[in-house]
Each structure stands twice: as structure tokens, then as C-alpha cells.
Amino acid sequence: MITLRQLRYLSALAKHGHFGRAAEACAVTQPALSMQIRDLERTLGVAVVERRPGDVMLTDVGREIARRAEDVLTASFPDLRLELRETQTRQLVEDIKSGALDAAMLALPVGEPDIDALSLFEDLFLLAVPSNDPRNETTRVAAQDIDQSRLILLEDGHCLRDQALAFCATAPRGRATAAGGTVFGASSLNTVMQMVAGGYGVTLIPQIAADVERRDERVKFLRLKNPEPGRSIGLAFRRTSPRKADFAALGEVVKESVGVGGASTGSSLRGAKRRSNP
After folding, report:
1. Which residues contact 227 (CB under 8 A, 6 or more apart)?
2. Higher per-residue pLDDT: 158 or 136
3. With 50 as the cut, is the pLDDT of residue 228 above it?
4. 203 within domain boundaries
5. Chain-wide mean pLDDT for the chain?
6. What predicted TM-score, i.e. pTM, was given to this entire model?
7. How far is the C-alpha of 200 from the C-alpha of 192, rounded, in Å?
8. Domain count, the chain
């Protein structure tokens, strides 16, 4: 499956012609960006970039994909200039309040009196474990069955970390697995998943991210026992914004793209700045 993240990274490569500068512009590490580009190439079965010492350029196929990606993003809103940003929820909220962003997709509730939000869909959590974990993929896992001494999470400041810890806190007190805290913290979900694949531990991952990570045969995913934990994903914007009708229309496009109507999938760390062309 081609992801919006991969298309954004490809667009940055087209603009900067350098992996390091493209990674800096996307606020990710160079290995993380490079890995996503290689995943994109594997999915498509073609090379999208030509790697040369000191720089990089898109192949003819890569340039066409980058062009079409821009078309896809603006197809529903032909007069819209869409800019994407991926960062921590706290920063997204501040950017909305300051006007740097017009809207952002994030986990609800926002908890800010100056910000309204439209609920879009539910995103369930799964437990990602190494493929050699003895549990069958049909196994349902309870909070008390997660060995928290092997739990790998994002670093402080990421709402996904807080959500995972909140779920683990529902485990009965006194469990031996709850002692010792977490072993690792990582700056990106991609890094977390690579650590799980390497056998360093387990993690809780949103279902939409799991749909992408299923390609890695070193990892498998287990459902959690009912009531399955998750989070509500919404589109947040300033309460005083005159563009509420636009945001409602954008929300419908998002729901259609993720197949809402029973699908539980989403992403909490994307911000979009909307600008109308003159």
C-alpha cells in the first residue's frame, strides 16, 4: 500500500535533491526517509529515485508519481494549496491556535476551549510482537498479559505514548510484568517497529500504521481483548475560523478515503495548512 507519508517524502526529495536535506525538511531522520522511499519502490516494483554520490534525482517514473501525488491531494479541492506537516500533537495544537495551521488531524479530545473538532473515525490499537512470539495471531491479549518491562514506546511528548501507557495502567496492580518500566523509547514509530522486528520488545500500534507494517514478516499483530482500546481521530480547527464548511467537506473526503462505515483506522500526527489560490 502506498502511503501519504511516502508521497510526502518523495516530494521532498524532488524539491531538495538530497536525502539529508529532504529528511530535515520532513523533520525525520535520513534512514527513516530512505526506508520509506525503498518501501515505496518495493510496492511499485520500480525505482523512483536515482542515487548518486552526494545527491539524488527522481527517475522519470518518480517524477510522474510525484506529479500525480500532488494531483490526488488537490483533486477534491482544485483551488486548494495543501501543505502537510507531521509532528507532535502539542505542536499541532499550538500551530492551529497561532494560525500557522488551519486544521490538523489528531487524536481527540483536544481539550482546548479555542479549538473545535470534527470526529472522523475510530483507530484501534494492536499489540505488535516479533514473529517468533509463541502466541497465535488469533489470540486476544489483555492489558495484564503485556510484559511492560519489554514495552517499546515513543519518547515523551508523543500522544501515542500517553495513550499506550493509559491502556497498560488498566492492568490489575501487583502483576510482575508491570515492574521495571519500559526498556526503550524511540523518536519515530518506524524506529519502534524496527526494534520490535529485531526482537527487542513489543509495542502498541494504531491499526492504520499496522496496515502498513504488515509487510515486514518479522512482526505479527495481536488483537486486544474487549473492550478493544483505541482512539478517536478528528479534524481540529480554530473555533473562530470562517472555513468550517470547508473543513466539514475535507472531513468527508478523509472518511471516504479510509473507508469509514465500520473501518477503524487513522493517524494522529498530521497537520494541513489550507490556502486558497488567488
Report:
1. none
2. 136
3. yes
4. yes
5. 78
6. 0.59
7. 10
8. 2
Proportion of the chain in helix, strand, coil states, percent, rounded to 5: 40, 25, 35
Pull the grid cell for residue 167.
491502556
User: Which domain range does residue 123 map to?
Assistant: 85-278
> Could you tell me if residue 157 is left (phi over 0), alpha (psi between -120 and 50 degrees) or otherwise beta?
left
CB 167 within 8 A of CB 142: no
CA-based nearest residue to 197, from 179, 174, 215: 215
Is 211 part of a structural domain of the chain?
Answer: yes
Write the Ramachandran bin of 190: left for phi over 0, alpha for psi from -120 to 50, otherwise beta. alpha
Asked which of 13-17, 34-38, 63-67, 81-85 is least confident by mean pLDDT, the reply is 81-85
pLDDT one-digit tens code per residue, 242-277: 988 888 888 887 887 776 643 334 333 333 343 333
Averaged pLDDT, 74-82: 60
152, 201 in Cβ contact below 8 A? Answer: yes
> Do the beta carbons of residue 203 and residue 152 sit within 8 Å?
yes
Higher pLDDT, 157 or 133: 133
Q: Are residues 69 and 194 in the same domain?
A: no
- Which pLDDT belongs to residue 113? 93
Q: What's 23's domain CATH number?
A: 1.10.10.10
First vs last C-alpha separation in the chain: 35
Name the amino acid, one letter, at 99.
G
Regarding whether 70 and 37 lie in a shared domain, the answer is yes
Q: Are residues 245 and 111 in the same domain?
A: yes
